[in-house]
Amino acid sequence: MKCPFCGDPNTQVTDTRENDDGEVVRRRRRCVHCDKRFTTYERIDLKMPHIVKRNGNRSDFDHAKLSDSMKLALRKRPVTTEALEQAVDRIEARLLAMGENEVASEKIGELVMKELKKLDKVAYIRFASVYRNFADVDEFSEVIREVQSRPKRGRTSSPPPADPENDLFGN
Ligand SMILES: [Zn+2]
Predict the structure, then answer these.
(1) Which residues form the domain of 54?
(2) Sign, CA torsion 46/51/52/58
(3) Are residues 24 and 68 both part of a single domain?
(4) How far apart are the CA of 108 and the centre of ligand 1, in A?
C-alpha cells in the first residue's frame, strides 16, 4: 500500500482490527519514509457475474428478470412469494459463490430448473419444456407470456403444447 502523502511503497501496519460483525478490517498504517499515518479498510468485494448468452452477448445480472421468469413458471401454482424469493436468493448465492466474472446463461437456466423442481413439479415441467428450446431465461419469459396469452379453455396450468407451433418459438 503506497503512502498517500509521499508515494513511498513501504508502509507498516501498526494496528489491525475487525468491526463487530467481521465484515470490515481496518488497518492503521505508518509510512516508513515520511512517518505519516493513515487508515485502510478492507471489505469483501462480492459482485454478481455478468451473464453471457449463447450468442455471446453479455448482460448484467438482473434480479427482477430472474424472479419474473420464475413467477411466470409458477403462475397459479400453490407456491408462496416468500418461497419463490428464497429460491431466487439461493440462485444468487450460488452465482456469487462461483466467484466468476462471467457465467453462461445456461448455468442460470440449470439453477432455475433445480429450484423449480424443488418448489413445484408443474412449474418445473412448464419451465423445462419451454426452456430447453431456448438459450436464455429472458427468452423463456417472452415465450411463456405468448403461450399464456393465447385463449384456452378449461385448463389453466398445462405446460405449453407440444405441437408444431413450438417451431414458432425458434426450435
Ligand atoms: Zn510517506
Answers:
(1) 50-149
(2) negative
(3) no
(4) 48
pLDDT tens per residue across all 171 residues of the chain: 889 999 999 999 999 998 877 788 999 999 999 999 999 998 877 788 999 988 888 989 888 889 988 998 898 999 999 999 999 999 999 999 888 899 998 888 889 999 999 999 889 888 887 776 655 666 666 666 666 666 555 445 555 544 443 333 333
CA 42 to centroid of ligand 1, rounded, Å: 20
Q: 30 CA to middle of ligand 1, Å?
A: 8
35 alpha carbon – ligand 1 mean position (Å): 6
| 10 C-alpha to ligand 1 centroid (Å) | 8
Question: Is there a contact between 54 and 136 (Cβ–Cβ < 8 Å)?
Answer: yes
Asked if the structure places residue 120 within a domain, the reply is yes
Same domain, 58 and 134: yes
Scanning the chain, the segments in alpha helix (DSSP H) are: 63-73, 81-98, 105-119, 121-131, 137-149
C-alpha cell at 150: 393465447
Instruction: Tell me, in angstroms, the distance from the centre of ligand 1 to residue 126's CA.
Output: 63
